[in-house]
Amino acid sequence: MPRRAGLFARHVRELAAERLGRDRDRDRDRDHSPPPSRSRSPRRRTSGQISAASTSAAVDLKKPVDDRIQAEVQGFEGSGSGWEDDRDRRPRSFPYDVKEACWRKAAVIPGRDPSRWRRDAIGNAVFKKLVGCQGCLCYDYDHIIPYSKGGKSTLDNCQVMQATANRAKGSRTEVSESELLERSAYCRLSRRDMDTVELVSYGNISKVRSEGEFMGCRIS
């Protein structure tokens, strides 16, 4: 038994020495061998290559856009309907100062404040605050020569007209005064009614008398 145990121990030592020798040889070969090269996939591109490719594509796409824009600009400059012509087009609505002057040239109603009451071109009473609405005291700033017929938004082509009558006139140029009166909204107001309208709208009543202008809140 002691002999067999000694042989077994020697065999174990030999195996351990042999394994240790193999490990040393492997480590020595690893230290002297060059580092392995990493192969890159031919389909994979770096971020710099991608950026350069995208920039190149952007430049290529930009050229026809610039050419198209330049062609459009040249088309506007060569035609008679460019941006500068749009500035010179006739305004569709009357400017504020023209509207105020148009109101002042309308006929006054005796005894009433002319800044609040006027008569339109065919004699209907209209109230200053009721512009652009539908009703017997409502009015529009009307183009005497309709805008669609070449009329300009100037004072000499402006008149105050009851809204209902103006809708009936439309874009026609040959309309008789009798037809417009017939198509107007009938409205007959007493002085007391007019006082009430003023009091509700302005908070007071303004009248013109021989001794001057009177303003108060008394309905008469």
From TrEMBL:
Polar residues: bias regions: 47-57
UniProt-recorded Gene Ontology molecular function terms: endonuclease activity; nucleic acid binding; zinc ion binding
Span of domain HNH nuclease: 121-167
InterPro entries attached to this UniProt entry: HNH, HNH_nuc
Compositional bias ranges of the Basic and acidic residues kind: 17-33
CDD domains to which the protein is assigned, alphabetical: HNHc
Pfam family, one: HNH
Family matches, as Gene3D superfamilies: 1.10.30.50
Lineage top rank: taxon: Eukaryota
Stretches the record annotates as Disordered: 17-64
The protein's name in its UniProt record: HNH nuclease domain-containing protein
Organism: Chara braunii
